[in-house]
Amino acid sequence: MEEAVRSVSFNNDGSQLALGMKDGSFTVLRVRDMTEVVHIKDRKEVIHELKFSPDGSYLAVGSNDGLVDIYAVGQRYKKVGECNKSSCFITHLDWSVDSRFLQTNDGAGERLFYRMPAGKFLPKEETKGIHWMTWTCVLGQEVNGIWPKYSTVNDINSVDANYSSAVLVTGDDFGLVKLFRFPCLKKAAKFKKYIGHSAHVTNVRWSHDLQWVVSTGGADHSVFQWRFLPEGVMNGVLEPLLQEGYADSNSGESDSDLSDVPELDSDIEQEAQMNYERQVYKEDLPQLRKKLVGSLKRQKAPDEGLRLQFVHGYRGCDCRNNLFYTQAGEVVYHVAAVAVVYNRQQHTQRFYLGHDDDILSLTVHPLKDYVATGQVGRDPAVHVWDLQTLKCLSLLKGQHQRGVCALEFTADGKSLVSVGIDEGHNIVIWDWRKGEKLAKARGHKDKIFVVKGNPFRMDKLVTVGLKHVKFWQHTGTV
């Protein structure tokens, strides 16, 4: 072909093949000798999708102009209708079994219905009882469950339903081919995922005998053929029954019992479920000890003692920006309730042991060898301490609940900003030397990952969190 091909479709008996072009034209070929039947150009933008009607009478051609044109096959592809209610480019379309209706998806996330062949718009209320010959649309109640949390309308590129086995195959931007039950009505539905593509999956389709799935890759320029194995059901999850000689190609189940999100999102999902509240806090222990011991005579403590020598590990599961080089070239980080100063040359560690619960955040002073660390707690403390002496310089409390998830010194080192994991994720600005609160504000309903100060303006901050970025200015005490 002289022009690049963007979409293809066979008619039902396989005698003709329609090709949608990047220049807005389409060509129909006679399959037996690949001769041209007709070439038509009614649009300027790429033909993204086209399909013959089940009875073979019409061809629907969807373009990036946001229109679907209907052509009568028996009249040498004369245009007989137009679907024009979409506000964006056409992405998917399906015919009804009786060839009387068409459904479309577009780039704006709309699912629309039309009466064929004229293309008259059909309200959703009038679509009940319509049976679709194919299901390749990514939007609709029937496929609600395929969309992971935090996804956008273009994250899933293609779907195809296997009616006889009641399953749906999907291809997405994360390089995954997935199998869902169909219809897939409930949000966060269980799935089986299959890894092979190295980049986004552009299309997935069942073979005519429903024994195979063919998937195409974008950046990897590959075509994969997957064998569909008969499946059993265990706890409502798709479980392929492996046949001799066929491995379950790097398959995996849903990332989480709570929601089925892609692997790139699963760490955020797991982090959102973490509970930092304690049944017993360390400050409760003396009182509990008195109740438990009562009047029992206690034995003398042993003469021997323990000294911490080396700590293996680093807290990265729910923390960010918590590992730094010191001015002397040592590495400072934290794990459990210990702040670690590691000397790479000598392979030795020094420890700040002032915290009484897990440390969640750490930052270093921009000018001096000082470190600030924040912890979990009913009234969580922020410690500012000296890297050389490992002595606490300032203890900041009374403004947060549950824990402190982010810290940042201002560029002049005079103020310290802390972010809590309480419901409002409150932001507090401290005069850390005096131990005084300078300002406080509600941050956001969702978790804040990081706070950063403007290097030139001490009164300006930015916070970044789950699906939000906020800019702040310190205008006085609050």
TrEMBL record:
Q: Where along the sequence do coiled-coil regions lie?
A: none
Q: Name one Pfam family in it.
A: Beta-prop_EML_2
GO molecular function terms listed in the Swiss-Prot or TrEMBL record: microtubule binding
Identify the stretches annotated as WD repeats: 40-71, 194-226
- Keyword Repeat in annotation: yes
Which residues belong to any copy of the EML-like second beta-propeller domain?
Answer: 1-227
Q: Which UniProt keywords apply?
A: Repeat, WD repeat
Cite the EML-like first beta-propeller domain residue spans from the record. 348-476
Task: Name any GO cellular component annotation.
Answer: microtubule
What InterPro entries does the database record attribute to this sequence?
Answer: Beta-prop_EML-like_2nd (IPR055442), Beta-prop_EML_1st (IPR055439), HELP (IPR005108), WD40_rpt (IPR001680), WD_repeat_EMAP (IPR050630)
Full protein name = Echinoderm microtubule-associated protein-like 6
Species of origin = Clupea harengus
